[in-house]
Amino acid sequence: MEDAFNSSRVNWGKTVILGVEMHQTPLPINTYFLLRGRTVTGCFFGGLKAKSDIPILAQKYLHKEINLDGFITHEVNFQDINKAFDLLLEGKSLRCIIWMD
């Protein structure tokens, strides 16, 4: 994150941080660069606002305006939940449906 900020353009560079830094270490920023016009901002989940955006996305999915089914790579039963975690850790699964039957 520090390298991204330091490589942004003087006077109008903008660094966008997505998600959470794994080790929760502070981001060291020279305030001089902020005063010279560089900016840093961040967001969780791409800036999605759950209370207002999820109902809209659900409606779009139900009306076939967006296709989410193509992102499902595996389906497992609840008793095989450990297989879902294994697939995730191995990098073999993008999205896994866990059936609770």
List the domain count as a whole number. 2
Taking strands numbered 1, 2, ... along the chain, how are they ordered across the largest sheet? 1-2
> Can you tell me the residue ranges where pLDDT is under 50 for at least 5 consecutive residues?
none
The portion of residues forming beta strands comes to: 15-25%
Which sequence of SSEs, written as H and E, runs from N to C? HEHEHEHE
Coarse shape: elongated
Rg of Cα set: 20 Å
Report, as a whole number of angstroms, the end-to-end distance: 43 Å
Q: Please, what is the average pLDDT?
A: 90
Number of helices: 4
Biggest β-sheet description: 2 strands, parallel
Q: Tell me roughly what share of residues is in helical segments.
A: 25-40%
**What is the number of beta strands?**
4
Q: Give the helix/strand class.
A: alpha/beta
How would you summarize the topology of this molecule?
Elements: H1 2-6, E1 14-18, H2 31-35, E2 39-43, H3 50-62, E3 74-77, H4 81-89, E4 96-99
Parallel strand pairs: 1-2, 3-4
What would you say this structure looks like, in words?
This protein is α/β, with parallel strands linked by helices. It folds into two domains: about 1-65, no CATH class; about 65-100, no CATH class. The protein is about 30% helix and about 20% strand. The protein has four helices and four strands; from the N terminus they run αβαβαβαβ. The protein has helices spanning about 1-5, 30-35, 50-60, 80-90; strands at about 15-20, 40-45, 75, 95-100. Strands 1-2 form a two-stranded parallel ribbon. Strands 3-4 form a two-stranded parallel sheet. Strand 3 (about 75), helix 4 and strand 4 form a beta-alpha-beta unit. The longest helix is centred in the middle third of the chain and has 13 residues, at about 50-60. The protein is elongated, with a radius of gyration of 20 Å.
